[in-house]
Amino acid sequence: MPARNAKSLEAQRSRAAEEWAALQNNSRPVIYVGAGSCGLAAGAEEVIEAMESYLAKNKIEADLLRVGCIGPCYLEPLVDIQMPGRPRISYSNNTPALIQDVLESFFEKGEVYQRRLVGHLGADGGDGLPRFFDHPMLARQVRIVLRNCGIIDPENTGHYLARDGYRAFEKCLTLPWTEVLDIVKKSGLRGRGGAGFPTWRKWQICRENESDTRYMICNADEGDPGAFMNRSLIEGDPHAVLEGLLIAGYTIGARQGTIYIRAEYPLAIERLRRALADMRELGLLGERILGSDFSFDIKIKEGAGAFVCGEETALIAGIEGRRGMPRTRPPFPAQEGLWGKPTIINNVETLATLPHIIRHGAEWFSQYGTETSKGTKTFSLVGKVRRTGLIEVPLGMTLRSVIYDVGGGLVKEFKAVQTGGPSGGCLSEEFLDLPIDYESLTAAGSIMGSGGLIVVDRNTCIVDTAKYFLNFTQAESCGKCVPCRVGTRHLVHILERISQGKGELDDLAKLEHLARSIKGGSLCGLGQTAPNPVLSTIRYFRDEFLAHIKDKRCPAAVCRDLVVYRIIKDKCTGCQRCVQVCPTGAISGPRSEAHNLDESKCIKCRSCYEICRFDAIAGDAIVIESRA
Amino acid sequence: MSGDPWAALSQDFAGEPADLIPVLQRVQAAEGYLPPDSIRRVARWLKISENEIYGVATFFAQFRFSPPGRHLLKVCLGTACHVKGGEQMLEVLRRRLDVEPGESTADGQYQLERVACLGCCALAPVVSLDNKIYGQTSVLKVQELLDARQKREKP
């Protein structure tokens, strides 16, 4: 029977709790597979097929659950095996062949398989095995927003309910909106989408605007390249976001909520659709929710692909069916937003944090973080670190701690960390001890942004990185403001010239001058921050720019026009593998003799370099180096 | 969309100008792109000029105006993929398939697209073929993927 009021929801919850407890004290084997987008990309589907056929062949009855991303994406596909009476044990980097050994060990020998064992996720002892959350990537994390990700089945609403789901929302229904606002104010929560505006302040402006209608929007149009926190969160725990949306809607007095989500995230959209259907069934959407005076409904709008729609007024234009172009503010959306009505737009992570703040209190939340940046923040830690994935750490942790303790450092020498996506900057080694908080990052010339942390080493060219970001913002500029539309194009031209070895000494001054004009002359956040990658790289990596301009060298050997591919004759065994893969016939030479590389035909595609490293006898006979 | 897609559309949408983007998304899902005839029909239905519809549709990256190739091959050029060699993969595929990003091959088999981010940055560089994502790939692995696919499809 579907729940329709608070009492029937509680009954539903206790049934769900029983089922959850039964899953923890299972009488038959349970297998959990990390099947978020990253797990699937690493091959989870093939591993699932292999397991299903093993179980069918051996007539073993077991439950197979697909869970979201638990964080260490570099260990995907992760599979957890939980035998009756044993803890849930996690195995990394599975393939159809490798999982066979794990299953055989458990089901045929009755032994815990030892190789590729990450740890156990049980509450207690765990047969003397290491704890999963003691893994070096996880030990220093504080998982609040991500607490359910990878643990529960995101398509089973009962799992969310059993773990105190929707309790925070129910508590809100018993409080006047002013009190909810007060809790959020005391918690110090700031927007997790990038700018870090205090959440409560925005809400108050909206609520205090006289209006018959107000709108609540969840911004899931995660546009920063190199960031996937929101995707993972929605895929792994959709109800956390939806409960937050209910709480926000209640506080600002909205009746309609919209989730604006990227069409590139099909799995996340599917999970939200299912979750919404379940909410309707439970009476958590619609008229007079759980018998209260609060009525609310949520619909999904798929974004059609425009980075500028991360800007609030552009996002609203997109929902209204127009070109996603920003407009002047004030009036701010909290005053006049969707269809001219007061509107609040909150990021996915901001919303998913709310249930925890309401349930545990403002003081509990503000124990984490710094004076001005409270709580925890999720980051996508990617690039050249050893341990890549989705992490959640208290604000105020240093970059060094995140990169070296959580991320395990780099294989090669550290060069820079890029934060804040295309609106952010590249920070050099001297900033490693900088605490990650809104103010410190801004003061250093970058921004917090939505949470992308891209670590690069000495094999990444800084000029190329700046050019990459400017190419991106130039393509995504909506064209409304001339300084942004034309200015970013000129920045790209100058950077291209430098990367081709045609730069001139006054180019740096030109870049800086142009960058300042774009920042000052643009209407929205895209234009105002687009030059950040250029300014921060010139500021902290001037030598590398000068090497390109004066010496016509690319120290990282990346910029195509400044590098050469060379075969080291003494090392080449003449195995011909590179000859076979070269798409332009630039490499020649008879078998067993050192090969020749014709530079005029070489398109620098890396094919020969890769095949030599991974598949040839010599292994290191082809080098890519900067022209002298 | 099975049956008459237009009947399903008029059932699911009120036919207001604000429905434009979701309606175009549905048309593209059914037809693979936005043919001029369909745009004319949407214009009449939602009472928006064709010019205006093209204005909106060309603004967003999702919409296509020519028929796509049968298999959609996306090369991710998000930041993490860029620093791990995504550009070279695009270059190799561009040559191999003899198309520019956004175009389909002469035989209509492959559509090559560059995308800003598929959100699998921890497994960079990634490509996706018909919506299946392949992580930790390389100029060589992506070619092996195509070799295997093309071999299977040859009779």
List the helices and strands and how they pair.
The complex is a heterodimer of chains A (628) and B (155).
Chain A: H1 6-24, E1 30-34, H2 37-41, H3 44-57, E2 63-67, E3 79-82, E4 88-91, H4 96-109, E5 117-120, H5 157-162, H6 167-173, H7 177-187, H8 199-207, E6 215-220, H9 229-236, H10 238-252, E7 256-262, H11 266-281, E8 297-303, H12 312-319, E9 343-347, H13 348-360, H14 362-366, E10 376-383, E11 389-394, H15 399-406, E12 414-419, E13 425-427, H16 438-443, E14 452-457, H17 462-476, H18 482-499, H19 507-520, H20 525-529, H21 532-540, H22 542-549, E15 563-567, H23 577-581, E16 587-588, E17 596-597, H24 607-615, E18 622-626
Parallel strand pairs in A: 1-2, 6-7, 6-9, 7-8, 10-14
Antiparallel strand pairs in A: 1-3, 3-4, 4-5, 10-11, 12-13, 12-14, 15-18, 16-17
Chain B: H1 5-12, H2 20-31, H3 36-46, H4 50-59, E1 71-76, H5 79-83, H6 86-97, E2 110-115, E3 127-129, E4 132-134, H7 139-153
Parallel strand pairs in B: 1-2
Antiparallel strand pairs in B: 1-3, 3-4
Helix pairs in contact in B: 2-3
Q: What is the helix content of chain A? A: 25-40%
Oligomer: heterodimer
Number of strands of chain A: 18
Shape, per Cα inertia axes of chain B: elongated
By DSSP (H or I, 4+ residues per run), the number of helices of chain B equals 7
If strands are numbered along the chain, what order do they take across the biggest sheet of chain B? 2-1-3-4
Helix content of chain B: 40-55%
Biggest β-sheet: strands ordered side by side in the sheet of chain A: 2-1-3-4-5
The backbone outline of chain A, from C-alpha atoms, is: globular
Q: β content of chain B, as a range?
A: 5-15%
Could you spell the SSE succession of chain B in H and E letters? Answer: HHHHEHHEEEH
What can be said about the biggest beta sheet of chain A? 5 strands, mixed
